[in-house]
Specification:
Layout lengths: L12 H8 L7 H18 L3 H6 L7 H11 L2 H4 L14
Length: about 90
């Protein structure tokens, strides 16, 4: 039996934010980005996750997935500041 040290150990970050009322700390952009990544993961990654584990040498499965999430979804550009014409994930 594993001992949990707090009420929040079994909860995800979003659930904790809902409970504590700190939801205002998360911008709409970040919330939307999380939804997009979660949907992508459920639809594209989860069905092939075993193949990704087995593709450690050739990267035939993982490279197209990384291109989708980093380039096509724009995650790679999201962390650059607005001054260089990017999304600036740090702003609310």
């Amino acid at each position: 039996m594993e001992f949990k040290s707090s009420l929040f150990d079994n909860l995800g970050e979003i659930e904790i934010l809902k409970i504590t009322g700190a939801r205002f700390l998360v911008s709409d952009f970040v919330s939307d980005l999380g939804r997009v990544i979660r949907k992508w993961g459920e639809e594209r990654y989860m069905p092939v996750r075993q193949q990704v584990d087995e593709d450690w040498r050739d990267h035939r499965v993982v490279e197209p997935l990384l291109k989708e999430v980093l380039v096509d979804l724009g995650i790679n550009a999201a962390f650059f500041p607005a001054e260089v014409d990017r999304q600036d994930i740090g702003t609310t």
